[in-house]
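Components:
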Amino acid sequence: MSATGATILTPVSGRRRRADRTARGFVLALTLIAIVPLVLILYFLVREGLGAWSADFFTTDPTGRFLGDPGGIRSAILGTIEMVALASAIAVPMGVGVALYLVEYGKRSAFANAVRYFIDVMTGVPSVVFGLFVYIVLVVTQVGGTFAGWKGSVALALLMLPVVTRSAEVVLNLVPGSLREAALALGAPRWKVVFRIVLPTALPGLVTGSLLAVARAAGETAPLLFTAAFVLGVNGDLSQRMNSLPLQIFNDVGQAQDRLVQRAWGAALTLVVLVLALTLVARLIQRRSKLA
Amino acid sequence: MEAGSLTTRGERSILERSPRSRAIDPLLRWTLTGLAALILVLIAFFFVRLFIEAKPAFDAFGYLGFVFDNSWVPSQDLFGALPLVVGTLITAGIALLIGVPIAIATALYVTELAPTRVRQPLVITVELLAAVPSVVYGLWGIQVLAPRLQGAERWFNDTFSFLPFVGGTVSIPNYFVAGLILAIMILPIVSAISREVMSTVPTEHKEAALALGATRWEMIRMAVLPYSRAGISGAAMLGLGRAIGETIAVTIVIGNAPDIGDSIFSQGYTLAAVIANEFGEAASDPTHRAALIAAGLVLFVLTLVVNAIARYFVNRAERPAAVPKGMAG
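Structure:
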């Protein structure tokens, strides 16, 4: 054993070094490939979409005419805002409520775990199946007419519910137990602890999770297809058929008409700007949160 | 009660809560429990209603017949969903083949190789893909991607026509384009979960590999990949679940032809796309409607199974005790 330092620290052989460099280069190349689609999508969205944007584009309704002026997307924007607002009004309180149950009361009980499991199941259900369900339960049975904006909202709410619940549960779990114990030790009843301590502390995180769910719902097409159906004009009444941005795009893509396809690009850019704005606001709020 | 009361206001100790305050506690508790129970009821109701509505189709064609008959001809009231099932599996398979390696590479690069400065921007860039709505992917796919890919597809088709599932005609909307779009769409989720799993690899394992003289890549191969294998499988399965259920983007780029195409460049159909596409015409035909709902049910069960397997893998990876065999100790 006359091993000197030099023989122990043999330099990495050329073959191994080459393998290392090749593999790292390969991983980097694949990572760069992953960025390409995003760049391409954004590039074409901006290039084609901006061409369609004009003042009229946002202030007129689609005319439904194949010749002449196809009209803008006002009814689609308003419809999306209305339906998503109602869907959030249903899904956010319910989702936060379920999460509160899981964190404050259910904890690790068998029932709470079952609820968690089925929330996960709901996350995996394809959105088109939710649309189908609402169609069967509310549209076929003619509850208040056939297609209606509020039925679209119900389908969207079903989609948002698991997202809101899961994110709310994570945030509520981050509220330090010592805060709850301090309040309880001072004699505060449980409900006061929940409303005065837990919810305010978790608020920014809850808002972030809800906004991300809203962003997801705003881009969904499939559940609206057979619940809110499609209509041209502006409609403030949620009990009637309602237009929406994704549906407008879906309808226009199928047309062999350049101007309709161009309207689809304009509407798509509008929708992406809307969704990205929501996502951005959600992230900013998250950054300001004191938890996590 | 009397013994403990120091000062009384009326009959009640000031240390005692008002009856109203005491009533709120159980009220809140049971309201929230009720909400949670509602979820279970909702899912049970969901499943039962779908099944009842789909029953006529299963009665007419049999459970196996519905799934495995190769004949989807609504005009003749023939509903065998095999072309749809096959289309779903082909597109999802292509999506996994293309999307998963890229997602894993991205996750590896971000967690192990990238300079700290570019990590966060890279993560955000990949996450942004998840913010693009499905219908926009469809629009981009059919207007930009499909026409531009056609030349390359033709060349590939002619050059490699000896391969199985290659050769024949190339149509603009086809299985491959749909699979490619799906690959982009599942990238964020597969990458995010792989990243999460890789970040749980103990630093000691990695440092041990490096201390023994391993290069970075050998460290990744010996320490990172074996440890996170289960989690990565779970991530891929979650991606599969997404790809199977994705509707609108696929409907736009797959061509909607209810036959099993002879190559990956022919038009096809998927379970989700058939529901989105044929619902308008099916409203008046009860058998057709039942068949579409049955297709939805098959889709639902398929995603349920895939997601259950995915969750098993991810949970196993997230438990710290779940060190793969040979790595324990």
